[in-house]
Amino acid sequence: MNFFQSIDVNATIYIVYAVLIAGVVIVVISENRTPVKTIAWMVVLIFVPVAGLIIYYFFGQDTRRMRHISEKKYKEIKDLSFKSLAYNRNINILPEYANLINLLKNSNFSPVLQGSEIEILTDSAKTFDSLLKDIGNAKHHIHMEFFIFKNDSAGKRVKEILMRKAEEGVEVRFIYDNVANWLVPKWFYNEMKKSGVQITSLMKVHFPKFAKQVNYRNHRKVVVIDGVTAYMGGMNISDNYTVNPNWRDTQLRVKGQGALGLQASFLIDWYSSGEAWLDDEKYFPEAQVYTGNLMQIATGGPYSLYHNLLQATVNIIIGAKKYIYLQTPYFLPSESLFLALQMASLSGVDVRLMVSEKSDSPYVDPAAHSYYADLLEAGIKIYEMVGKFIHAKTIVADDMLSVTGSANLDFRSFETNFEINGYIYDPEIARRNREIFFRDMQECREIKFEDWMKRPGWRRFFDSTVRLFAPMM
């Protein structure tokens, strides 16, 4: 090949690549995403061209208009699930939360569940022991769904008890996330299957659909035992979550109608993963009424028409009258969430945000720090837990509303992952959550605006640069 031929080949490659980049940019713009996310992807595609195309192919495609399960079928399944609850009867809904309740009903078909017994668990070791005990006492079925289920000592303990219960004749079903558990050897699951444990993945990642699946993770953590007792929250099954003293998580142990709400969520995911629909009433025993509280179980995911959990969070923040306290391991707020927090604080609401001084995700921390100055200037109090990683995802507001679940306050939880939250309307639960927040504050340092602004200029510039990519994290 002579010199001029080489130039022609190179020119052709550049032209083809430029057309390809331009085509992808047009696709990104035409998807009508938020301007922040659109600009972030355009920056990546233009300034990191080759890697940008690969990253976009695997992590950037918008699947929100694709349906994992049709809306009609989703509502039909929820109606079947809750038929024993007669949830359309008149319920005394608190007028100050009517908008939130109706929002979750209309966007997620989430009924109001009455009278659940709810235990707030913050000691990971005790939570794990409680879970093992309840699983061991199962008589009819055990339904489990976890983002992470490692083959370490904690995973092996759960595995052994699930296998034993299956061999005893208890129905055991388990949903795991395909990508988060890639390093778990196949034999780990095969041994469970041989003993009778039924195992599936909500979204199996395989070719040729790999690019459309690898970015969408099942981040939900749900356990339902005999349709009577259930668990939800932030804890996964691994030693890090169960025996690490420097790991602070929050889990709910739920009995009553709330457990049936989690049952419905699990069975919908089981059906969505390609398994048979289980509509037998034996999975929905008559629920005992323990208290006077109200509860809604709401899910969010990449195939939902609306950002259900983000909408609910913004609704809670702008509706707060006295205070709102939030805990999250990762804080990368969308523009709407960011503005809602500022509006609430500037309106005189006591807004407090608790995160970790250092998370387990170093690229997230600087992006999160870039939001601090504006939040502090608006009067929001920021607390960083020192020496521990706070993995709890909780909100408490106005001595009445509490939220606990799997969703972080970040783009990934609100837009990309499959998540689940519990919304509890009860003054006693709110009081306990408020006490837990203030107890955790004793292990935190408060970030002050004057001190924060004394950081070196290069540090602030670096944080702001990383923030450009926050919508993709």
Structural description of this entry:
This protein has 473 residues and is of the alpha/beta class. The protein has helices at 3-30, 35-47, 49-59, 71-81, 98-108, 124-136, 153-167, 186-194, 210-213, 239-242, 257-272, 308-319, 335-346, 364-369, 372-377, 411-416, 427-441, 449-452, 457-467; strands spanning 113-114, 117-121, 141-146, 171-176, 198-201, 222-225, 229-233, 247-248, 251-255, 294-300, 323-327, 331-332, 350-356, 381-385, 389-390, 394-397, 401-405, 409-410, 419-425, 444-447. The strands form four sheets. Strands 1-10-19-17-16-11-13-14-20 form a nine-stranded mixed sheet, sandwiched between helices. It is globular.
Provide a quick synopsis of the model:
This protein is of the alpha/beta class and 473 residues long. The chain has helices at residues 3-30, 35-47, 49-59, 71-81, 98-108, 124-136, 153-167, 186-194, 210-213, 239-242, 257-272, 308-319, 335-346, 364-369, 372-377, 411-416, 427-441, 449-452, 457-467; strands at residues 113-114, 117-121, 141-146, 171-176, 198-201, 222-225, 229-233, 247-248, 251-255, 294-300, 323-327, 331-332, 350-356, 381-385, 389-390, 394-397, 401-405, 409-410, 419-425, 444-447. It has 19 helices and 20 strands.
